[in-house]
Amino acid sequence: MDSLIKLWFSTGLANFELGQVVMMLVGCGLLYLAIARNFEPLLLLPMGFGAILTNIPVAGFSEVGGLLHYIYYAGIDTGIFPLIIFMGVGAMTDFGALIANPKTLLLGAAAQFGIFATLFGAIALNYVPGIEFTLKDASAIAIIGGADGPTAIFLASKLAPELLGAIAVAAYSYMALVPIIQPPIMKALTTEDERKIEMKQLRPVTKIEKIIFPLGVLIMTIFFLPSATPLVGMFCLGNLMRESGVVDRLSSTAQNELINITTIFLGLGVGSKLSADAFLNVETLGILALGAVAFSIGTASGVLMAKTMNKISKDPINPLIGAAGVSAVPMAARVANKVGLQANPHNFLLMHAMGPNVAGVLGSAVAAGVLLALVGG
Amino acid sequence: MDNMQQQFIEAGTLMLAGMVFVFAFLGVLIIFINTVLARLAVKFPDAIVVPNSRTNKKSKSHSKSNGDISPAVVAAISGAVKRYRAQHSQDK
């Protein structure tokens, strides 16, 4: 009889707590979004599964000695996984459109207003009972507005590791929701005539420009913002491997096998932070709400900046490409192209939108560096 | 309450400093692209790629099918035609 009782107490059924069941359902929700709705499946699938694993009673996946515990501390707490992913993203990024039309860097800069404006929202949420965000927490939450998953995870792991799970879920969910969140804002802020604007064809960019560009960006970051060099440095390394043309094997590994392997572990590691006590609270709701606000403000400020530039610049600029400044590569550029095509079926904005889109990646990395330098110390 | 006010002031300062820095950084990058990279592009334009007949047999056959005959073949044919015409003019 004793053995039977002992066996019963070692089962999951006897040890389940309500919070764990709810978090497993959250994990299943993420799996549903990944599999059925195709929302950022590469990350939401391992993240959702990680959420299920970490909430299994008795198994201790996230306790000392558990697999997820080591994955988290080896790769996310140290900041290694997001940086490796950033290298892969660099190896996949073509800066040609940006170099051909460098003015679009201003759109990438304007869209970062979403990050900094959200800081106020995060602080204001302290008026809500049960929520207490410090400036470090607020900065980690605000980076969701950069719409850049690795940057958000990197900054959250440095400034507010206890909020990492909610921040990562919010960041990737909103990135997946770009085609739903952005078009209404873009349409509300532009006229039909503005959306029809056709832009001048981009000039061809030479190989030497593409090789020197990442080196130039790195040197500038070293000089002006060393706190951003982990992100920008890895990004530039990946991009240089791609553009130099002499290490195709390394470039291919960085943008395929390495980024894929790291994505599996990153997803599992973030999922391990989705435990009931860390996720099921009012703060998570606040983070999800602030993420949406950050994203919307970023989109709006990018569009408004493009509108202003269109009025000043001698070459026409379609304001829709400003929305791509939030990064979320290449989804935001595709959305700009799609909304442009709805207004003018002969207007292909994709290449023009890729400029602000990759500028947004640089902009959010710089914004993260600024937050790290000013708040992280 | 004072603490909240203090945090709002800090957030405002952070926003101002952050946006100014992001614009300044990316602005300097624009200058870098318009000066250094633009000059490099003029000084070192991309080399025009000439298909190498020795290294790629496939491209050779492809170029033939497109009617894009290599200069060596053109020279050989012109030489042969010249000789043929010269011989025929001697016969007359």
Automatic annotation (TrEMBL), chain A:
Keyword Cytoplasm: no
A molecular-function term among this protein's GO annotations: lyase activity
TM region positions: 12-35, 42-64, 70-92, 104-126, 163-181, 211-237, 285-305, 317-336, 356-375
UniProt feature coiled coil, ranges: none
The entry's keywords: Cell membrane, Ion transport, Membrane, Sodium, Sodium transport, Translocase, Transmembrane, Transmembrane helix, Transport
Principal location listed in the UniProt entry: membrane
Function: Catalyzes the decarboxylation of oxaloacetate coupled to Na(+) translocation.
Protein name: Oxaloacetate decarboxylase beta chain
Organism annotation: Colwellia psychrerythraea (Vibrio psychroerythus)
Taxonomic path: Bacteria, Pseudomonadati, Pseudomonadota, Gammaproteobacteria, Alteromonadales
UniProtKB/TrEMBL annotation, chain B:
Species name: Colwellia psychrerythraea (Vibrio psychroerythus)
One Pfam family cited in the UniProt record for this chain: OAD_gamma
Reported cofactor(s): Na(+)
Reactions that this protein is recorded to catalyse: oxaloacetate + 2 Na(+)(in) + H(+) = pyruvate + 2 Na(+)(out) + CO2
Signal peptide extent: none
Highest taxon of the lineage: Bacteria
Ranges annotated as spanning the membrane: 12-33
Known EC number: 7.2.4.2
Assembly description: Heterotrimer of an alpha, a beta and a gamma subunit.
A molecular function GO annotation: sodium ion transmembrane transporter activity
UniProt GO BP: sodium ion export across plasma membrane
Gene name, Swiss-Prot/TrEMBL: oadG
Subcellular location: Cell membrane
Keywords, ordered alphabetically: Cell membrane, Ion transport, Membrane, Sodium, Sodium transport, Translocase, Transmembrane, Transmembrane helix, Transport
Family assignment from sequence similarity: Belongs to the OadG family.
GO cellular component terms, A-Z: plasma membrane
Keyword Translocase: yes
UniProt-recorded name of the protein: Probable oxaloacetate decarboxylase gamma chain
Membrane topology type: Single-pass membrane protein
Function: Catalyzes the decarboxylation of oxaloacetate coupled to Na(+) translocation.
